[in-house]
Specification:
This protein is an alpha+beta fold. The chain has a single domain (about 5-195), classed as PPM-type phosphatase domain (Phosphatase 2c, domain 1), CATH 3.60.40.10. It has helices spanning about 45-60, 65-75, 170-180, and strands at about 5-10, 20-30, 30-40, 80-90, 95-100, 105-110, 120, 125, 140, 150, 190-195. The strands form two sheets. Strands 2, 3, 4, 5, 8 and 9 form a six-stranded mixed sheet that branches.
Length: about 200
């Protein structure tokens, strides 16, 4: 049985052939690694930097989130760099570990929470992975079946969590956020991930 259900919505800046915003949802040992990466700027160079970050994260997905960010930082020194937020879910122990560098916003909605009520907001640290890495500190939260994690890049306005429902399908929620809160002047990506199962 899959442990998460997720939806993605994207906007590519008109005139560009590809987006500098990427996402990743993959199995990591006993857990799940979730990430959203925004290459600095837009176009091919931004897409190349974010694509490299995705490859590194996927190849080392079972490592702690701080190690993953440090690996990306070392490998992206010759690129424009990226900002990113990532989360590691341990379904067996009901724990979420997350960390953000730059401005990829993250929120966690609890199952059964009133509409638009966000219980947890990811603390972002200023910096650029590949250029200026801040002191890294991950936060750990309990997570339960039905909880929903949302990551958005800076092409989405800050009040995106308003009106979110923990009952809506992740794909529909992602599309709704993009439609309502997309700025339209930058690449944008919305990733909505719901925990649907817990390992016994």
């Amino acid at each position: 049985m899959p442990l998460v259900e997720y939806g993605v919505a994207k906007f590519i800046l008109p005139g560009e052939s590809e987006s500098g915003d990427r996402h990743l949802v993959c199995c990591a040992g006993d857990g799940i690694l979730i990430a959203v990466i925004d290459g600095i700027g837009h176009g091919e160079e931004a897409a190349s930097a974010s694509g490299t970050a995705v490859s590194i994260l996927k190849a080392n997905a079972d490592e702690p989130v701080i190690s993953l960010v440090e690996r990306c930082h070392e490998s992206l020194r010759s690129t424009r760099g990226v900002v990113l937020s990532l989360a590691s879910i341990d379904p067996q122990h009901g724990m979420l570990t997350w960390l953000g560098v730059g401005n990829v916003q993250g929120v966690l909605m609890r199952a059964g929470a009133p509409k638009g009520s966000v219980q947890e907001v990811l603390l972002l640290r200023g910096g650029v992975v590949g250029s200026q890495l801040p002191a890294l500190q991950a936060a750990v939260l309990p997570i339960a079946k039905g909880d929903t994690l949302v990551f958005v890049t800076d092409g989405i306005q800050g009040e995106f969590a308003e009106g979110l429902s923990a009952l809506e399908s992740p794909q529909r929620a992602a599309e709704k956020i993009l439609k309502r809160h997309g700025r339209g002047n930058d690449d944008a990506l919305v990733l909505v991930v719901r925990l649907t199962g817990v390992r016994a």
